[in-house]
Amino acid sequence: MAEEEVRIGVFVCDCGLNIAGSVDTEEVRLFAEKLPNVVVSVRNRYTCADPGQQEIKKHIKEHKLNRVVVASCTPRLHEITFRNCIAEAGLNPYVLELASIREHASWVHLHDRDAATEKAKDIVKIAVARARLLQPQHETEIPVTDAALVIGGGVAGIQAALDLADAGHQVYLVEEQPSIGGIMAQLDKTFPTMDCSICVLGPKMMDVGRHPRIELMANSMIEDVSGYVGNFKVRVRKRARFVDETLCSVCGKCAEVCPVVMPDELQQGFSSRKAAYIPFPQAVPSAYLIDMEHCLGNNPVACAKCLDACDKHCIDLHMQDKIVDLQVGTIIVATGMGIYDPTPLDEYGYARFENVITSMEFERLICGGGPTDGHLIRPSDHQAPKRIGFIQCVGSRTKNRGNPYCSNVCCMNTIKDSLLIKEHHPDAEIYVFYMDIRAFGKGFEDLYRRSKEIGVHYIRGLPGEVTEDPMTRNLRLKVENTTSARIEKYELDMVILSVGLEPRGHLKRLTNILNLSQTSDGFVMEAHPKLRPVDAPTPGIFFAGCVEAPKDIKDSVTQAGAAAARSSIILNADKLTSEAIKAIVDLTKCNSCGVCAKVCPYGAIKVDIKAKTGAQITAAACAGCGTCAAECRFDAIAMQHFSDAQIMAQIDAALEEEPQKKIISFLCNWCSYAGGDLAGVSRLQYPPNNRFIRTMCSGRVAEKFILHAFEKGAPLVLVSGCHINDCHYINANHWTKRRVERLWERMKKWGIRPERLQLEWISAAEGPRFAQIMRQLEEMRQKVTSEEIEHTKKVLKEQRLSKKKAGEQEKVTEPYI
Ligand code: FES
Predict the structure, then answer these.
(1) Residue 667 Cα to ligand 1 middle (Å)
(2) Angle formed by the axes of helices 672-681 and 75-88, to 10°?
(3) Could you identify the atom of ligand 1 that is nearest to the CA of residue 732?
(4) How much is the mean pLDDT over the chain?
(5) Strand, helix or coil at 507?
(6) How far is 513 from 223, CA to CA, in rounded Å?
(7) Average pLDDT over residues 435-459
């Protein structure tokens, strides 16, 4: 195609009066007709309607067109429509360019027909300049492995695994602990229904254990994940259990003879277990294991009593970890949450007073399967407490010591606990110290009301300090009751700290392996908090449960179902098609510096810096943001469909005439460009001096584009993308920011005012802000003098020539970043 004569057809749309009302479309058509390589220019009333599309197809055939420009509305609305249209006429869908003369001209310059027409002509000229360089592109097909990995065996992971397996997919469920069940298995009752937690969860755990399509890998860790949607390669370490779980009959004889006694983690240390143990009676897999860290069997004096006691001979003290390699199409991350440790909050005395306990410790103390068989006692003297206080928001909603967010479940958990205590001890006095009670879910307010009706006292105010009477071990606290505006004093037998939830300690390790981002509060970041709440930004990875944010059991299960359904969409497909907008490497130019691999938000690029074998891009994993191409100083990476040459040609076309009157704005497709579209749809008026260049992400905007625009005489350049942390390519716009900041410094050195390069984050919903920024830019443009522009052109030309002379591109050893 490169040698073929370029034959462009331009189709100018009236869009009724939407465009023709304020743009002279006939003048635009005549103008387009004279542009290089344009062989036909046609005006339509409604180009997107069937007659309009038929006309495009007719002209493609009649004039042997091999590029098409449609000057109508935003590509965000009809790019697919016209791609399909030209494909039906036998052209590759990627040889189409849209010129948005509606959202960016007619609608935003309603009262200045001449200016709107001039701008529309420029927009068409820019589009034709790009179209001239468009190349056919081909979407790749990726085969899909029909299997899923679920990481984490709490209630969310269990539900996701069961849903996927029931839908006919092979599932590997990897759990770090020796049994699945997670935190839900440690709770006594659940709110708002007050049903027994393990009675609800136990049958689901058993379903996992016996499901023919679920391979449960407990006591196991993810070591490595590579690949991409449809084809992930996963390495799992199955830690040695030292008991063959397929043979163990759970007779318990190993534990009976085991001489090692240690605190039982599940019972929060209120009782003990042996080194040979089963985590809890309902554990799945239903088998014992040996805690080798404490077992005497590996010490010089081996005890080996368990070996003698085991009739089935299923204990092997020399068992080794196993590495298992899996191939899966999708991954669901359901690793749950951690519980806040209140030790740093010394004022509550958790580490000093035995009768101050956490809500998780309380769960075990009141549970029928707990260390006291469900008899609530206070730890110091094993007497039943009569006066019990709950302190809410411990480690939550605080900026200093704890976490700034609301942990979502603690209010309802305390309300549930208050009812449980009243069930056990109807005459107990219960006081709940709180900031707000958040009872927002189905049945929650009812439970709260029941708690108050049976006499639980709710006191609005948090105590500043808890002290202990050393004689009685009772706890004293003083609180300002903000409802009665009085200072109140309480003496209590036991205080329960309603501790918050937080990301699990090891989550960072997993997010590194999976190349995922975490939000400022440490939970994983979704692709979009509202529209794709269970998708990771990396295609093929999904979230379920508290790994995404604190949530209760019902919400965790709901989210698990959603993640399984989203996962099934991929697994049900034999093949996935992947967009043609991809990065490609020219290995003859690549210096193996590794910058591209560092900036790629998807881990799609691998570079062996030592071996210097050049960057290797996994096309299926590349999402097409273009950050690698923008950061490559050797011009070794090209972006398909958004090539350097195309963008440079757009800049040249925009600034060919009267550059001093133009502002060049690079807008990312998903946010800023969409914000501009919204300004158009909302008919917000702004000056007509801006010329827009669309890139998929602001990360694509290379320094050379900005410098080229200045060298061509642009008084002002805008780089604009999604707000930080909203980038549609994970964190690509962080690199945009760094790049622009770096350029500001260099502009200062060259004597160019850095203010002439503007950086703005504009969301798709910020049409008014977009228009406002356009107005501000025009004010700034007017202050840029022709002397400044000439000086800039001269300096940049000198820089460019001296760089070329020095052959700097080949010599760079230190990457920018
Ligand atoms: Fe908008 Fe990355 S997609 S800045």
Answers:
(1) 9
(2) 100
(3) 2
(4) 94
(5) helix
(6) 8
(7) 95
SS3 112: coil
pLDDT at 814: 42
Alpha-carbon distance 140 to 662, whole Å?
39
Instruction: Output the pTM of the full model.
Output: 0.79
**Of the candidates 59, 53, 58, 54, which has an alpha carbon nearest to the alpha carbon of residue 33?**
59
Q: For 622-649, write each residue's pLDDT tens digit.
A: 999 999 999 999 999 999 999 999 999 9
The Cα 739–Cα 628 span in angstroms is 12
Distance from C-alpha of 217 to C-alpha of 239, rounded to nearest angstrom: 9
Q: Residue 677: CA atoms inside 13 Å, Cβ hemisphere, count?
A: 21
Distance CA 721, CA 764 (A): 10
DSSP 668: E
Q: Is the CB of 671 under 6 A from ligand 1?
A: yes
Taking the centre of ligand 1 as the mean of its atom positions, its distance from the CA of residue 721, in whole angstroms, is: 5
Task: Work out whether strand 486-492 and strand 475-481 pair parallel, antiparallel, or are unpaired.
Answer: antiparallel
User: Please, are residues 730 and 517 in contact by the beta-carbon 8 Å criterion?
Assistant: yes
Distance of alpha carbon 812 from alpha carbon 806, whole angstroms: 11
The residue type at 604: A
Q: In percent, how much of the chain has pLDDT > 90?
A: 87
Measure Cα distances from 303 to 104, 244, 321 in Å: 81, 19, 22
627 CB under 6 A from ligand 1? Answer: no
Sign of dihedral through CA atoms 24, 25, 31, 35?
positive
Question: Per-residue pLDDT for 505 more than 60?
Answer: yes
What is the SS3 assignment for 209? helix
Both ends of the chain: CA-CA distance in Å?
A: 38
CB atoms within 10 A of CB 178: 23
Which stretches does DSSP call E strand in 546-672?
A: 575-578, 583-585, 605-606, 616-617, 637-639, 663-668
Measure the CA dihedral 209/210/214/220, to 10°.
Answer: 30
pLDDT over threshold 90, residue 517 = no
- Give the phi and the psi of residue 734 in degrees, each rounded to 5: -65, -35
Q: Report the SS3 class of residue 389.
A: strand
Contact between residue 24 and residue 7 where contact means Cβ atoms under 8 Å apart = no
Smallest Cα–Cα separation from 529: which of 549, 512, 557, 510?
549
Surface-to-core class of residue 505, CB atoms within 10 Å of its CB (0-12 exposed, 13-18 middle, 19+ buried): exposed
pLDDT at 299 (0 to 100): 57
Best mutation site among 728, 735, 760 for ligand 1, i.e. most ligand atoms within 8 A of its Cβ? 728
Indicate whether residue 698 lines ligand 1 (CB < 6 A): yes
Tell me what pLDDT residue 719 has. 98
Backbone CA torsion sign across 412, 417, 418, 422? positive
The preferred substitution site among 628, 665, 667, 698 for testing ligand 1, maximizing ligand atoms within 8 Å of CB, is: 698
Q: Which of 258, 273, 261, 263 is nearest to 303 (CA)?
A: 258
The residue whose C-alpha atom lies closest to atom 4 belonging to ligand 1 is 721
Contact 418, 430 (CB under 8 A): yes
Radius of gyration over every alpha carbon of the chain, rounded to an integer in angstroms: 33
Res. 811: pLDDT tops 80: no
pLDDT at 125: 98
Measured from the CB, is residue 722 less than 6 Å from ligand 1? Answer: yes
The partner residues of 224 in beta bridges, in order of sequence, read: 235
**Worst-scoring range by mean pLDDT, 108-117, 391-400, 427-436, 511-520?**
511-520
